[in-house]
Amino acid sequence: MIDVLFLPMVALALFIGLLLLALSQDTQRRRIGHVSLSPREKAQRRMPAAGILAGCLLLLIWYEGGGFGTLLWIGLISAAALAVSLLLAWRPSFFSIGSRSFS
Amino acid sequence: MEPDFRRSMGWLHTWAGLVLGGVLFAIFWMGTLSVFDKEIDLWMKPATRMVSSDHALSFDAFRSSLEEASRLKASFWAITLPNERDPVLHIRLRVGARFHNHDVNPSTGRDLPDPGTLGASGFIYPFHYSLRFRLGEWLVGLAGMAMLVLCVSGIVIHRKIFVDFFTFRPEKKPGRMLLDLHNVAGVLGLPFHIALTFSGLVIFGAVYFPSGTHAVCPHERACSDEDIKVSLPTPSEKLVVPFTSLDEIAVKARSVWGHDFPESIIVFNPGTSASRIRVLRSDRNQVVFLADKLVFDPTDGHLLSRQPPLRPIARTERFLTGLHLIRFQNWPLRWLYFASGLGSCVMIATGFFFWLNARRRKQGVAFGFRLVEGMAAGSVTGIVIATLAFFVANRLLPLGVNFAGYDRAALEVWAFYFVWLATFAHGWLRPRRVWIEQSLTVGGFALGAVLLNWLTTSDPLWRTFLLRYLWPVAGMDTLLLLGGGVAFWTGSSLARRARETAYD
Fold first, then answer.
1. How many helices (H) and strands (E) does chain B have?
2. Domain identity same for B401 and B260
3. What is the ipTM of this complex?
4. Are B271 and B392 in a shared domain?
5. Angle of helix B331-363 relative to helix A66-90, nearest 10 degrees?
6. What is the DSSP letter of B110?
7. What is the span of the domain harbouring residue B274?
8. Does B313 reach chain A within 8 Å, measured CB to CB?
9. Contacts of residue B331 in chain A, CB cutoff 8 Å?
10. B213 in a domain, yes or no?
């Protein structure tokens, strides 16, 4: 069961990390009609985002080994970033919900 | 950064992409398909669609084939066991300068009929790294270097790489939207583009820089078969004692490795006193491309040598090779490679489209523009159509067919090249309609391939989904349907937009 759910959960965590990162950028916030953040607020979002991304890398290396873990992290982070980009383009309302949730 | 420097990088990015973009698209497209080469083989060779044998196979059951190889004075005889991706047992031997391959049903031990096709592993995969011509590896190397230059120059000219990290605006004008798509595909897949391009160059390092290899190994074969300590081809000495049991050797190999079973056994110079048996362990549970090699004496079966541990630099080279060749067994990673490969294709194609779109209004009728548009059409949609024509020809040509001296496998390849050439001509002759018509052709060929697979093999999609051993065929059909659907949608969208523009 853990084997089956492990990668989807890591992918979800990476998605959340990148979502936080996107919601800390002025350009993306303007696109979804949100006001810009102060430098302090940006840091408040970027620190946990960086932590999630780094944590996922360590988790993957621990679970899958150095070679597979690193390659999976690179592949999943690209896929998660693509998902964030496409949602931002076609379903910006999703980000409004996300932004409220993480405020 | 100096504006002049950025401008010169922009010039380099544009022209390197324009000149070598077509070759790069061909390399990345074929490489992306090669990620699933065994699965495509299964689709193209219906006789190999079989349930994997769940009982332990005996190497000695194929002893008669080995003895036949001895009689033929083969320089080597090799047997490779089936695995999760390839249900067929393979026997290969080399007699003189000729290689012979036999696909064997592991359950019955009988040879499978000639598939009459090169399949993906015999055509698509070699095309990826050699373009199937004499100096193709050099052109691939040049394109690989250009790809690295394109990556670096792309980063330099992209002023807001972090700010625009997630920026894709489909609602904007086509030019802006194409550039966004190009940037998103380029930036998000950047680690993949660089890692795969660099590792590809490393694999062919000895081809591009042979002096280093020659300095260490004056005779190339002497290095690659150092553990065998024999020279190829066949020496003249005759064997005086019979072969020991291959199964016993497999058991000994297993005791050396702990629990792993041999994946393949190669008998060099069978039937001579210079004979040696090399046993290879599966390397599918690791990224590093390194099958632990054991060498045995064929007369009494004692262990002669074991591959020594690699030094760090050699191990790094093996890691990069393994990272590129994807021999490992990791399905999520394999799918991520496939998706990233498609992302690379999107990046290259949108680079072409952006260039064309930016100049269409002012230079649309100029010879240079028409030339580039035809080249782009043949390079992007053209090679996709040609690949689909290869699949369609595979399902349409009857087994054993021969035309003008060419067998079925050669005719499939001719179909590929003929259709590919036709797409270039189409691009030059019908510039206004080329993208619409070629997109619709992609959709038609993809749908046709799925229908033909159903009609010629009685394996419709619902059946292949239900049977576990047919999942690779189901995956191939599903991707063809999805790709065909996207192509139909693209073609009809472009046609609608062209009509709206004409009314305006």
1. 20, 9
2. no
3. 0.91
4. no
5. 40
6. P
7. 55-116+228-306
8. no
9. none
10. no
